[in-house]
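Retry 2 of 3 after timeout on previous attempt. Resubmitting structure tokens to design endpoint.
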């Protein structure tokens, strides 16, 4: 899972800067109901409605997550480029849309 940063807050209590990051989570197919399927692209994630707050130490790095149409327009796909085609609700384990058009082209 990887979060999209929504807000960074600093709470200066007792002379300590307590930084917190609110993030909107993206799920990897293997972390969602049904797991990874043959039609999922290697760099595919699911956008979710899961929001929570994390400490900065939990962030491993930066990546670029685009919708599928934007991803297809990239001239060069880097290791940090990902795309999403579906929304995923981890509480109900439901997808929106619940069906996808499958393409014959290779999605990496």
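Retry 2 succeeded. Sequence:
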């Amino acid at each position: 899972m990887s979060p999209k940063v929504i807000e960074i807050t600093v709470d200066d209590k007792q002379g300590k800067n307590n930084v917190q990051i609110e993030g909107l989570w993206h799920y990897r197919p293997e972390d969602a109901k049904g797991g990874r399927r043959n039609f999922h692209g290697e760099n595919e994630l699911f956008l979710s409605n899961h929001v929570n707050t994390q400490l900065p130490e939990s962030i491993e790095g930066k990546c670029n997550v685009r919708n599928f149409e934007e991803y297809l327009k990239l001239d060069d796909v880097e290791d940090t480029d990902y795309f999403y085609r579906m929304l995923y609700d981890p509480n109900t384990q439901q997808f929106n849309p619940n069906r996808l058009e499958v393409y014959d082209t290779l999605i990496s």
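Attempt log closed. The chain has one domain: 5-96.
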